[in-house]
Structures are given as structure tokens and as C-alpha cells.
Write a structure and sequence with these properties.
The structure is a single chain. The chain is 53% helix and 8% strand. By secondary structure, it is mainly α. Strands 1-3-2 form a three-stranded antiparallel sheet. The longest helix is centred in the last third of the chain and has 21 residues. The protein is globular. The relative contact order is 0.12.
Length: 129
């Protein structure tokens, strides 16, 4: 998996990388057990501060997306959803409100949003539970 950063972007580099890793996992481009590059290797490849990479890995580990195996490296974690169904739905509702608010401000119609969601849903690896 190749990661990229856009130094001209207003989005901080750590958020760009965090988003890329989360999307790669959600789209099954990175599978549970896949090893990510070391902090040193990725920072050299992207020419960014190693602390930035470490921050991304730490945040994603805290979220349960990655796990570190001492002496072995950083890996994509197995999906363990310990969050209650009610809490997940509440969080999703908050994100959905943000998404729909942005769609309104972009001038999209409800049909355009539904069409985009229907097409976008096919790009992700959904867990069945």
C-alpha cells in the first residue's frame, strides 16, 4: 500500500495519513494481520517527521484499527467492536448529520446524495454481524 501526503493541503499530514489508513482498512485494501511500514521507513519514504508517523500509529492503535507487536512491528488489527450498538448508532447519527449538512451547503439534492451513497457503498468491505 502506497501512502502519500500533500504538503500544499490545508489538512495536517497526520490527518491525511490517518485517513488513508482508515480508508484502506475500510475498503479491504489492508487486511487484518497486514504489516505496515515501520515509523522510520514510512517517515523516510514520505519525507516527514517520524513523530508524525508515530502519532498516526498511536491514534489508530487507540481506536483499535492497528496494533503494535513489540519487536515485530505495526499490524492491521482484527475487527473487535466492543462499542455498544446504541453508542455506534449515536456516533453514526452524528457523522450522518455532518455529512448531510455538508451536502446541503454544497447544493446537492436528496436524490443526488442517495445516488452517491448507493454507488459509494459498493467500494467498502462490510462486516456482517
Amino acid at each position: 500500500m502506497e501512502f502519500q501526503v500533500d504538503v500544499a493541503s490545508r489538512m495536517p499530514i497526520y490527518r491525511q495519513l490517518r485517513s488513508q489508513i482508515r480508508q484502506a482498512v475500510a475498503r479491504a485494501r489492508l487486511q487484518p494481520g497486514d504489516q505496515l511500514p515501520s515509523v522510520r521507513e514510512l517517515s523516510a519514504r514520505l519525507v516527514v517527521n517520524p513523530n508524525t508517523i508515530a502519532r498516526v500509529y498511536t491514534e489508530l492503535e487507540r481506536e483499535g484499527v492497528l496494533n503494535t507487536r513489540p519487536g515485530l512491528g505495526v499490524f492491521v488489527a482484527e475487527l473487535h467492536n466492543d462499542t455498544t450498538k446504541k453508542a455506534r448508532r449515536q456516533r453514526f447519527g452524528e457523522l450522518l448529520d455532518e455529512f448531510l449538512t455538508e451536502a446541503v451547503h454544497l447544493g446537492l439534492s436528496g436524490d443526488e446524495v442517495l445516488d452517491a451513497v448507493a454507488k459509494g457503498v459498493t467500494k467498502f468491505a462490510w462486516q456482517t454481524q
